[in-house]
Design brief:
alpha/beta, TIM Barrel, Rossmann fold, eight-stranded parallel barrel, 38 strands
Length: 714
């Protein structure tokens, strides 16, 4: 006998109660949905893909303020907030009153089917726990190698000094010719007679030094080191940070972790110090990893001109401390969030100036290796129609290579030219087409003065339609897996050697590839040597994406393991192309003992740094071809279960009529992210795996095209 009663599975009951398992959190994992499934939620995507407001609580926060703001945000199409503490909230940050306000916010957000990211700090950068490292755990504060003393000597002068505790190294620099001598301080006594020349002797010690912080408890509201950051290189310090912040939040809102509370949001952790990162065990760790003692030589890092040997030792030091930063600060937080069914999203500092980032954070990809949602920061009009700003590719590449479904942007903080709606949408589309698929708008103050904190373009009548557009776009661009077939080796090792030309070539290569419709991802040393798997003449990353060509821009150094991987890849059918300057040193255990490379006759070597015809011919067959050069149009391609998804953006002001050939099979559909409507476009099938069509673009126009099975209601 047929049972007509409804069947309620445990999953269905849990879903109705708002309780979902980690498996049922698609925003946390790569998906492989069909066109039909994606279309069913396209018009009104899950709230987790919404645009987010970075919501700052300056002023006295009450239930009325919280409810009023959440209602206003939701009415304007914003369903997520990134909650930041502020000045004069009525309750100090990390006090019981603060946590009760967070709890009430989460309750009110849940009632409205909204979501919350908790900013992990009382302002920024992340890692000072509202000042608790200064007051409660001073031994775990940030540390650095710094100048202890400078002494001037002339020829024949004798220096005899009993050294104070903590002096690690000393160097004498001849100011006449910049030559230098490392001085022996191992006995605790420095004795040295100056030879011919005018000499500066520099003594180096370790000390507590912090990057400046902007803290809610700072009465000046300034940015200074009075609230010290933690020692990013010490796992005990990060553990204490989690105890001060994450574990305390868990006591109040832990039941909503992974549902209403999506995770913790970090901001700009870095070493903006006059010194060099240091931690208690770093010399011991260095010797274990590199095989020699660096302590006597660290003073050379402060010399105005470094010898080749000193540059190599400094690169070894950068390799070690950046690895500790990634493992002991970023990974610990990501692991904690994962253990609580949440995500950790964070951006670094100066992604648009990679040489500066390397100085203060060591290595973008080491930092982002374990982060669930890597990000970038668009600040001070870094992204604007009159600029070349391709740096969002760093964050999206990290997401792709490490198997993460999403990458985010914090946009519009401190824009000195406030955008109108059209300009703001351009800034966001510019990032979406480079792989960003989560948008956070900075900065929306709480309405503690009775006035809604929206301003500029967020206060305009058109904002809500853009918010809904970004919601649908983020949803679409999170589906399936990325499809770029080109990988660009990021020359971090060369940047540690202060080879700025490598960075300049990377920036140029990004612009050339994107302007000629050749999409790509960056890969780093770790990805190339540890993660990528050879499969049928391709390298497959953790997203299941396959690279058929590897480009190596101008570089001075590469590891032996990486070279061997590339050579094996070439022998299996992949293409390897060296552009510009080829590596002059091959690193095994250390830069100091690096050797010269062998012949690169197994690869394509292009001495120029241009995309010559020889280089173009080594690239995979393009999945997008236009009938004419069109550098203003950028695109993104993702593979979904039964279709190909393309996102196009005309970054220019010219109207365009383009003949296009796209890889894909089936009907060409226009998915209008502004309206949520889907329609069929006219196209011609070619060779059963490509379609040919005409595409019209207006100024600043975007288009989402899906090629494959059309939804059943069309």
């Amino acid at each position: 006998m047929k049972n007509n009663k409804p069947v309620f599975t445990l999953l269905a009951v849990l879903t109705m109660l708002g309780i979902t398992s980690c498996v049922e959190r698609p925003w946390q994992k790569l998906t492989n949905n069909s066109v039909k499934d994606i279309a069913s939620q396209f018009k009104t995507p899950p709230v987790e893909y919404s645009i987010s407001f970075y919501w700052g609580w300056d002023g006295k926060v009450t239930d009325e303020v919280i409810a009023r703001d959440l209602d206003a945000f939701r009415e304007r199409g914003v369903h997520i907030v990134s909650l930041e503490s502020g000045y004069n909230m009525g309750h100090p940050y990390l006090s019981e009153g603060w946590f009760n306000l967070v709890k009430r916010t989460v309750e009110l957000a849940k009632e409205r089917n909204m979501r919350v990211w908790i900013v992990d700090e009382g302002k920024y950068p992340s890692g000072f726990a509202g000042g608790k490292f200064t007051t409660d755990a001073p031994e775990l504060r940030m540390k650095a190698l710094v100048v202890a003393e400078k002494i001037k000597l002339s020829e024949g002068d004798t220096l005899l000094r009993t050294l104070s505790e903590g002096i690690h190294s000393a160097i004498a620099v001849n100011m006449n010719d910049s030559s230098s001598q490392i001085l022996d301080v191992s006995s605790g006594i420095l004795q040295w007679e100056a030879p011919e020349g005018q000499w500066d002797v520099t003594l180096i010690k370790h000390d507590f030094r912090s990057s400046p912080t902007r803290a809610v408890n700072n009465p000046t509201r300034g940015k200074d080191p009075s609230n010290s950051l933690l020692d990013y290189l010490d796992p005990a310090a990060t553990k204490k940070f989690l105890e001060f912040t994450h574990e305390e939040h868990k006591k109040y809102v832990g039941e909503e972790f992974g549902t209403t509370v999506l995770g913790f949001r970090g901001d700009e952790p870095d070493y903006s110090i006059r010194g060099i990162p240091w931690t208690n065990r770093i010399f011991e760790i260095f010797k274990e990893q590199k095989g020699y003692d660096i302590e006597p030589y660290v003073a050379s890092f402060f010399a105005p001109v470094l010898t080749d040997e000193q540059k190599r030792m400094k690169a070894d030091y950068w390799d070690v401390w950046s690895g500790l930063f990634g493992e002991y600060f970023f990974k610990q937080q990501a692991d904690w969030c994962a253990a609580h069914n949440m995500e950790y999203l964070v951006h670094l500092n100066s992604e648009d100036k990679m040489m500066r980032l390397v100085h203060g954070e060591g290595d973008f990809f080491k930092c982002m290796r374990d982060v669930q949602m890597p990000g970038v920061d668009a600040i001070w009009n870094q992204i604007w129609p009159d600029k070349v700003s391709d740096f969002p590719k760093y964050a999206s590449s990290a997401a792709h290579i490490f198997g993460k479904p999403r990458a985010f942007t914090e946009s519009f903080a401190a824009y000195h030219v406030q955008p109108n709606v059209q300009e703001a949408k351009w800034v966001l589309d510019h990032q979406l087409v480079r792989g960003i698929n989560m948008v956070e708008v900075m900065f929306i103050p709480a309405s503690t003065n009775g006035q809604l904190g929206l301003n500029g373009w967020t206060a305009s009548e058109e904002f809500a339609s853009v918010a809904r557009y970004i919601h649908r776009a983020s949803y679409l661009l999170s589906q399936g897996r990325p499809a770029a077939q080109i990988a660009v080796y990021h020359p971090s090792m060369s940047l540690w050697l202060e080879h700025e030309e490598s960075n300049n070539h990377v920036l140029k290569l990004m612009q050339q590839l994107l302007g000629q419709q050749h999409d790509f991802d960056f890969i780093d040393e770790y990805t190339l040597t540890e993660l990528l798997v050879k499969e049928n003449g391709a390298f497959k990353n953790l997203s299941g994406q396959k690279y058929h060509t590897i480009l190596i821009p101008s570089a001075t150094a590469i590891s032996r393991v990486a070279l061997n991987q590339l050579k094996s890849f070439g022998a299996s059918g992949g293409k390897v192309v060296f552009l510009g300057e080829t590596p002059s040193m091959v690193v095994e255990k250390s830069f100091l003992e690096a050797t010269k490379p062998e012949s690169l006759d197994w690869a394509i070597v292009e001495p120029s740094d241009e995309l010559t015809e020889r280089v173009i011919s080594a690239l995979p067959s393009p999945d997008v071809r236009f009938g004419q050069p069109t550098p203003s149009v950028k695109y993104l391609h993702r593979k979904i279960q039964d279709a190909d998804l393309y996102f196009f953006f005309n970054e220019g002001l010219d109207k365009l009529h383009l003949d296009a050939t796209l890889t894909g099979k089936g009907a060409v559909q226009l998915w209008d992210a502004m309206s949520g409507e889907i329609s069929i476009l006219k196209s011609t099938i070619q060779d059963n795996e490509q379609v040919k069509m005409s595409i019209d673009f207006g100024p600043y126009e975007t288009k989402f095209l899906i090629i494959g099975e059309k939804p059943s209601d069309l």
